[in-house]
Design goal:
heterotrimer; A alpha/beta; B mainly alpha; C mainly alpha; B: mainly alpha; ABC transporter involved in vitamin B12 uptake, BtuC; two-stranded antiparallel ribbon; globular; disordered C terminus; C: mainly alpha; transmembrane (chain C); transmembrane helix (chain C); membrane (chain C); ABC transporter permease (chain C); cell membrane (chain C)
């Protein structure tokens, strides 16, 4: 691999010249203020972590850095030279290389073409061939992330994890001054993450500055040198060395003065409600038997790709299975049939709320009522006011904010969108089972508390609740017992009160002594 | 379990909330009333509405399909098929039977469209385009490629030329269609399901909605609206024409777009379609009154359609203001 | 259920398949089938003269379909191509009368301009493709009428010399067919080998991501619609060459056949893939159908029905085949 450390042009003390210096950035979307006074200062050859709750303005700041959007106010300087990127293409040309958390690959094109996407975008001339990365180089890029796939394979044939690696390989392969890693590890295994970190450290050694966005403190502590924390669009910690800060200080900076709630009292479980027997996700997975009792919250925990989310979805009838039966209070339920499941009182909150949960252009109220339309219609006609009467109490109880039930759902924050999905299910009369995937992914701390309260409350009214989450703290806080999922099937059960470390061990397949 | 205390049931729908297209309609009406002689006369307005009623009725069907996130290209061809079937059936089945046979043929096309889209998840664009060819070709084969005249009779021309209480039947039919469309969309469960399915089909399925049934019903009802339009059209041209109304699907789409209905699905109201239809009907009427050469008529229609759609989609652009990117909900993904 | 049955038969097809991307196999299959059927049932069908006839006739449709392919590949849609071809035909004829044979290029230029206007409406102004190209369809028809004085055919002064280009075999094919063939090869190079082609495929493959890697989406759409207009214009020129006059009202309905040919030619409606060869074969299939039925004395409208059925059938086949790999490999990895 040939790569020149472009940042070596800085003469004298490298700490005095920032690779990237962003200051006083403000950005408004209509009436909403995403960034008030954000700043970011990156040293060459250092990993800089950007932290903040969802809604703090992280992605807006990242988009401004990579040129995807323009700030309303503020100054950006690259290697001391004031710059403003008119588009992503300009930023890439200047050596600011993004690796996106949402896959920006082209499924119909080959791996090689995807690896060459930046070059194809930036090249001039007529022919595509000169813009393609040489095969040997492409192979080296893939080797660096440990992916050994065919260069001519269309990307749509790869798994999600492999695609993420292609995306990372593409970014790492560029000649860059600044590499922006936006939650790159979401779909990666531990080994892949380690390998990625190895490459990142090597880039650092060559003088590249890294902007690293992650929610995982362990990763940040393992990798980052400096840290900036955003809260409400303001940099509350501005480019300070990570070593000088404790984890508690970081959390406090991110959350502000939020009171940490203690353990919730969970209701006493009653009679079995949901029984799954011999459930197999795929033909090769071991069969799983799961029973959830009334008032019980069962956590499904597993690493990414373990099948925990899929197993939970199958319990809700949201996903076809290879084999097995479902029953609610003894009544058999055909797996994979959401229509029958809803009729039997099985609620479901999907993991990907945009793709599978939200009706973006429709009003919040209509989103909340989508599972219960039949309830407030008579003879095919909607009863006037029936919808509001049925759903408004739930929206109020879940503290929808802003309380504008007529506003399109797409206009709400992630947490409030999640409340809409939850209220949709809570409003189902005679709700027996509630399966919630990733209840609070991308949700701010206040909404998280509300959602957790609502889940416990639902259990309190006799609902059998299943929570599958990649957020282990969440699973531990909510569940009566935790079912460990590995390789698409159950791998034991842990009682409430199991420590985080023990849970991690079990998820990774290590039996506690 | 549901705590209803503290809930203040309020009616959310029903509040009059005019779409932007209303202003386009009013503006255009004022301009034409001032600039086009005889435009604002009662006789002309009646004529305008009567001519526009066919477009209006068919556009009601298109609205449903667009809300479902689909698109319907086969309207014109199925109307042509209906006219041919009607005229061919006349001798044996009589006037009512003939119209019924014609309407049934449109419904059949709608059923095929709906089945292929709903049960086989084919792209609506592809399905309705294919059915356009099948229905259009079928009409031409049945008619032997040439228009066939219907024997003149009062009963046959009643749908197009009759009056009830002094009001032309097509106008009444269009009014009834829009009333029905509004009722369906705003006040029925079926209508609500169309919005949900159109906005996010996966989410609708996971919410326990039988998506295919909703889609099929939507395409069938769209076919029913088109059938009504075809009956009136056949009655008006008094013949079976394999080349009847080739632009009907495009005009209905244009009407919906001018009314501000996005083609992405999940959105759209009856009043928006009505506004779009009125814009196009007024425009068609005015260019005829102005007695412009056909070329200028077409240029003017194109300009107004594109202008109205731009006004809906990018008002700031027309006013030469800097375009602001659409507001995105902040950081709600992970 | 019928869907399962179809899926199983699709499985069989895949197993028997070659390395060619699945959707591109539909068009050759259709063509071979149609040729075989007609060869068996119609005596004169396999004659050299008939083959030459089809080979010469197919190119108007093929050029239109190639243009449409560029737009479909970006997940767009252009219903104005028929009208643009008619306008270009008129412009070519008028310019040819004024400046001689080189004037024919004016038709291509007119098409390119129309296409760029469409591209600006869709790309820069962000209008829905159906609505934008519907607007330009009406406007372009109006323009054709305007410059011809209400739809009069524009006779060529040098009609003999021009039509000779269209009919007299040079070595094997007439000059016009050679030119169209060269254009098709050019289009294939554009799709397969050029930067613009690669960007068009990228824009169609993942519209959200293409801007994120630094491609100017608006410019890509401008390119795609511009190319579509250019090829429609070239089709118009070809129409003029073959008819010996400018045809202001010809081409209505051609847009549907063009889309049909592109779809049968495997241009994915979800964008991102395109093959000029398959599209040309798709156009040839439609032409074979028309000619063959004509020879049999069957109404050409039956061909229209057949094309409609093939469009839907190809869609059915494509969705089923495309659902298979994802059905197998993505069973678990949803995060």
């Amino acid at each position: 691999m040939t790569r020149t450390a472009m940042t070596r042009q800085t003469r004298g003390d490298p700490a005095k010249i920032w690779t990237l210096e962003v200051s006083g950035i403000a950005k408004n979307y209509g009436a909403t203020c995403a960034l008030r006074n954000a700043s970011l200062r990156l040293r060459p050859g250092k990993v800089h972590a950007l932290l903040g709750e969802n809604g703090a303005g992280k992605s807006t700041l990242v988009k401004i850095v990579v040129g995807a959007i323009q700030p309303d106010r503020g100054r950006i300087a690259l290697n001391g030279v004031p710059t403003r990127f008119a588009g992503v293409g300009r930023a890439i040309a200047a050596g600011v290389i993004p690796i996106y958390q949402h896959l920006s690959l082209f499924p119909h094109l080959s791996v090689l073409e995807n690896l060459s996407a930046f070059a194809i975008a930036g090249a001039t001339g007529l022919r595509a061939r000169p813009a393609l990365v040489p095969r040997a180089t492409a192979r080296a890029w893939l080797d660096a992330v440990g992916l050994g796939c065919d260069l001519d394979l269309p990307v749509e044939r790869l798994s999600v994890g492999e695609r993420q690696l292609v995306e990372i390989a593409r970014g790492l392969g560029q000649r860059c001054t600044l590499l922006v890693l936006d939650e790159p590890t979401a779909a990666l295994t531990h080994d892949e993450t380690d390998r990625l970190f190895g490459v990142v450290r090597r880039l650092c050694a060559e003088g590249t500055a890294i902007l690293f966005i992650s929610h995982k403190f362990d990763e940040i502590e393992a990798l980052a040198d400096d840290v900036t924390v955003l809260r409400d669009g303001v940099a509350v910690i501005d480019a300070e060395p990570l070593a000088s800060l404790s984890r508690a200080e970081l959390v406090r900076a991110m959350l502000g003065d939020t009171v940490e709630t203690g353990d919730r009292a969970l209701p006493q479980p009653g009679a079995p409600v949901l029984t799954a027997t011999g459930l197999r996700l795929g033909p090769t997975d071991a069969p799983a038997d799961i029973t959830v009792r009334a008032g019980e919250i069962v956590g499904l925990a597993g690493l990414v790709g373990s099948g925990a989310l899929e197993l939970a979805a199958a319990l809700a009838g949201a996903r076809p299975v290879a084999a097995g039966t479902l029953a609610v209070r003894g009544e058999a339920l055909p797996p994979g049939d959401r229509v029958r499941a809803v009729a039997a009182g099985v609620g479901y909150v999907p993991a990907d709320r945009h793709a599978e949960g939200l009706f973006g252009p429709l009003a919040a109220l209509q989103n909340a009522s989508s599972s219960t339309v039949a309830l407030f219609s008579r003879g095919g006609l909607l009863r006037p006011g029936g919808e509001a009467a049925a759903l408004m109490p739930w929206l109020r109880r879940l503290d929808l904010h802003p309380f504008q039930p007529e506003r399109p759902a797409a206009g709400f924050s992630g947490g409030n969108q999640q409340k809409l999905l939850l209220s949709r299910n809570l409003a189902v009369p005679d709700l027996q089972v509630l399966v919630v995937l990733e209840p609070t992914r991308g949700v701010d701390i206040a909404a998280r508390e509300t959602i957790h309260d609502a889940l416990v409350e639902a259990a309190g009214r006799g609902v059998a609740v299943v929570v599958a989450s990649s957020d282990l703290d969440e699973v531990m806080a909510l569940s009566h017992r935790i079912l460990v999922v590995r390789h698409g099937s159950l791998d034991g059960e842990l009682p409430r009160g199991t420590g985080r470390a023990a849970l991690m061990d079990r998820l990774a397949g290590r039996r506690a002594a | 379990m549901m705590a209803l205390t503290g809930a203040r049931p309020r009616r959310f729908s029903g509040r009059f909330n005019p779409p932007a297209a209303v202003w386009v309609v009013l503006l255009l009406f004022c301009v034409f009333a001032l600039a086009v002689p005889r435009f604002a006369s009662v006789g002309n307005l009646e004529n305008l509405l009567r001519v526009g009623s066919i477009l209006g009725i068919a556009a009601c069907g298109q609205t449903i399909v667009l809300i479902l996130g689909g698109i319907e290209f086969s309207f014109g061809a199925s109307a042509a098929l209906a006219s041919v079937v009607t005229v061919l059936a006349l001798p044996s089945a009589g006037v009512t039977g003939g119209f019924a046979a014609g309407a049934a043929s449109v419904l059949l096309v709608g059923l095929v469209n709906g089945t292929l889209v709903a049960r086989f998840s084919l792209p609506p664009f592809l399905v309705t385009l294919g059915m356009l060819m099948v229905a259009g070709g079928g009409a031409a084969v049945l008619a032997g490629g040439l228009p066939i005249d219907a024997p003149p009779s009062d009963a046959f021309s009643w749908p197009a030329r009759g009056r009830i209480a002094g009001i032309p039947v097509p106008i009444l039919a269009a009014a009834a269609s829009f009333a029905l469309l509004h009722l369906l969309l705003a006040h029925t469960r079926a209508g609500r399901l169309w919005y949900l399915v159109g906005a996010n089909g996966t989410a609708a399925r996971l919410s326990g909605i039988t998506v295919w049934r909703s889609v099929l019903a939507g395409y069938l009802l769209a076919g029913a609206f088109c059938a009504l339009a075809a009956v009136i059209l056949t009655s008006r041209v008094a013949s079976g024409q394999p080349g009847l109304a080739p632009n009907l699907p495009f005009e209905t789409i244009a009407a919906c777009a001018v009314g501000g209905i996005p083609l992405a699905g999940g959105q759209g109201r009856a009043v928006q379609t009505l506004c779009g239809v009125l814009v196009i009907a007024m425009l068609n009427n005015a260019v005829v009154l102005l007695n412009l050469p056909v070329a200028y008529q077409q240029l003017m229609i194109a300009a107004v359609i594109l202008g109205a759609v731009m006004l809906q989609q990018a008002p700031r652009l027309l006013l030469l203001l800097p375009v602001r990117p659409a507001r995105q909900p902040e950081e709600d993904r992970s | 259920m019928s869907a399962r049955l179809l899926r199983r038969s699709a499985d069989g097809l895949r197993a028997a398949g070659s390395t060619l991307p699945i959707p591109f196999r539909v068009a050759p299959l259709c063509l071979i089938l149609a040729v075989a059927v007609f060869a068996a049932t119609t005596p004169r069908f396999l004659s050299l003269g008939n083959a030459a006839n089809i080979g010469a006739q197919v190119w108007v449709l093929a050029l239109l379909a190639i243009g449409q392919m560029f737009v479909l590949a970006t997940r767009g849609f252009d219903i104005s191509v028929g009208a643009v071809a008619a306008l270009s035909s008129v412009c070519a004829a008028m310019a040819c009368n004024g400046w001689g044979l080189p004037g024919l290029a004016a038709g291509a230029l007119a098409g390119l301009i129309c296409g760029l206007v469409n591209g600006a409406l869709v790309g820069t102004l962000g209008l829905q493709p159906v609505v934008a190209t519907l607007g330009s369809l009406i406007a372009v028809r109006g323009l054709s009428l305007l410059i011809t004085g209400d739809g009069q055919v524009v006779p060529l002064d040098a009609a003999g010399a021009v039509t000779r280009l269209g009919f007299e075999p040079m070595p094997v094919l007439p000059a016009a067919s050679w030119a169209a063939l060269v254009l098709a090869v050019g289009a294939a190079l554009l799709v397969g080998r050029s930067l613009a082609g690669r960007r068009i495929l990228m824009a169609g493959s993942n519209p959200e991501a293409v801007a994120l890697v630094g491609v100017d989406t608006r410019r890509v759409q401008l390119w795609a619609y511009g190319l579509c207009g250019l090829f429609a214009g070239l089709a118009g020129v070809l129409m003029t060459v073959r008819a010996g006059s400018g045809l202001p009202t010809e081409g209505a309905g051609m847009e549907l056949q063009a889309i049909a040919a592109a779809v049968i030619g495997g241009t994915a409606l979800s964008g991102g893939i395109a093959s000029v060869a398959a599209v040309v074969i798709g156009a040839a299939f439609i032409q074979v159908l028309l000619t063959g039925l004509n020879l049999q004395g069957v109404s050409p409208f039956v061909a229209q029905i057949a094309v409609g059925v093939v469009i839907i059938a190809s869609g059915l086949l494509e969705t089923l085949l495309r659902s298979l790999p994802s059905f197998h490999s993505q069973s678990r990895t949803r995060t």
